[in-house]
Amino acid sequence: xxxxxxxxxxxxxxxxxxxxxxxxxxxANWFVIPIAGFGLVLGLISRRKEGxxxxxxxxxxxxxxxxxxxxxx
Length: 73
Hints:
It is a single chain. This protein has helices at 2-20, 29-45, 50-68. By secondary structure, the protein is an all-alpha fold. The chain is elongated and about 35 Å long.
């Protein structure tokens, strides 16, 4: 059950991260990191690894986008 919740949180975070890739909307990735971090914690508690992996990928995408935009743009 926790893995399903982690996957749903990862999907929501991924949608917001995809929106944050658009120029001048990179600030949205600051909201993605805590959301996906919460999903990652739920994924760590569950037995399966899919939620963990999805949330780690979403966090990595958000961090790369923030670093390319200087953390703001």
